[in-house]
Amino acid sequence: SSSMSLSEAEVQSARGAWEKIYVDAEDNGTTVLVRMFTEHPDTKSYFTHFKGMDSAEEMKQSEQVRGHGKKVFSAINDMVQHLDNPEAFLGIVTPLGKKHATQLKIDPKNFRIICDIILQLMEEKFGGDSKASFENVTNEICTHLNNIYKEEGW
Predict the structure, then answer these.
(1) How many helices (H) and strands (E) does the chain have?
(2) Is 13 among the domain residues?
(3) What does pTM read for this prediction?
(4) Tens digits of per-residue pLDDT, 92-114?
(5) Which residues contact 98 (CB under 8 A, 6 or more apart)?
(6) Is residue 22 part of a domain?
(7) Any idea where the Globin domain is (predicted)?
């Protein structure tokens, strides 16, 4: 369904929390990916560039990792800007989900992993309230992505 389950107040507090982490999109995006690759090494197999990298330090320096970290954060930023417009939100999430399901064949559980690491980083940097207010958004994103995957036959 296209209905978003977030109230206006929830949208506002989620945006506030997101803005703080998005200021350093490339660095924070990189941190999130490096954590994912380090804690869940199987996720590296989707990225041919990163496969051979074992040290977190090496990954942090990699232009490809940094570029993708920034890309992930930009995509989430687009979603966050459209939380109060379900049609626009789905217009961003749907092609992204389809691409990851059909072309890239990324296991959808990886979206949850990335979201959880973002929440963890928010909590470390800005405290539990930031994390709590953004949790609604990550649930919304993951729910919609999972629905798209189901439609694509996963």
Answers:
(1) 7, 0
(2) yes
(3) 0.93
(4) 999 999 999 999 999 999 999 99
(5) 148, 152
(6) yes
(7) 5-150
Q: What percent of the chain is predicted at pLDDT more than 90?
A: 87
**What is the span of the domain harbouring residue 84?**
8-152
Of the candidates 31, 107, 117, the residue with the CA atom closest to the CA atom of residue 69: 31
Asked if the structure places residue 118 within a domain, the reply is yes
Provide the pLDDT for residue 3: 56
CATH of the domain at 49: 1.10.490.10
What are the distances in angstroms from CA 92 to CA 75, 77, 107, 148?
8, 10, 19, 12
Tally of domains in the chain: 1
Is the Cβ–Cβ distance between 148 and 101 less than 8 Å? yes
Residue 65, both tokens: 């990792």
Q: Give 1-20 as a DSSP string.
A: -------HHHHHHHHHHHHH
Q: Is 53 left (phi over 0), alpha (psi -120 to 50) or beta?
A: beta
